Amino acid sequence: MTAVAMVHTTQSQSGQSRQSRLAFHAAWGLSVAVFSTIGWMALGPDDPLGAVSLLSRRDVWVAAAQAASLATVVSAIGAALAGRMAADVGAFAVCIGLTIMSFQGSNMTQVLMERGGTPTVCLLLAAESLFWCLIAVWCLFVSGMVVRWLGLTESAVSPAPGCDPEDLDDRVARRREVGHVIIVAALTLVLVRVFMAGSGDRAIRHGQACFAVGAAFYLAVGRAQAFVPVRSAIWSWSAVPIVCIAAFVMSWAASSPTVLDNGLVTVPRSAFLRILPITYAAAGTAAVLLARWRTVPHSDG
Known about the structure:
301 residues; mainly alpha; 2 strands
């Protein structure tokens, strides 16, 4: 009788696992569908050939409000659908949707051409990247709030291996968390340069930019979590805005961020300037969360 009960329990758990995976795929699939249609109509550039960027819009504040509203709704729905998997699944779904939506527009070349390729455009891009980071962290909050309100998962989840809060005092924990953020940010910047190596004299490829950001954050979080584990995903995510600012500030410090060909901007000299702000924030956040789920099951933001 005990053996039969164990079999039924195993089958039940297997069925729940399949349902959770289906719900997870449904959550990000719905996000892609929403942002590729409604999102594109709300956030698409004024120029049909432009890139998905606030710098490509005349009504910046309207676009920002629409982005925040749409992200809030999609994050809440995603959390309600697949919140049993992780508290931050709604934010992941939103970031996947934003990343896919960005493929419908042009790349950084168009933004630089519209702005004349001046070095000061880097500072505007840094400011925009912070806006998208705020959208991402807001979605983390909304997703977690919905999940806990519906009782889909507990607030306190299993800590990362080697990072039991009971074994650490506050000072040790803070040093570890700060060290984790620094490692993730530094590794990501290095890896982005590596993945974009040799592309300086070629046209920008949006797919390469998304891969570089996603792969860099994923690998950086995995390595940082292996050597300096932290319990909360928010520490891993904190490297995203740091990388955004550092990337565009370094491009600005180069003074001549673009290559000019007959007065027209063709390709940027800086590898970091080949990536849209929305790509840094959205693809970066999605990669961070995915890496956390792979290294720390049921990681909580």
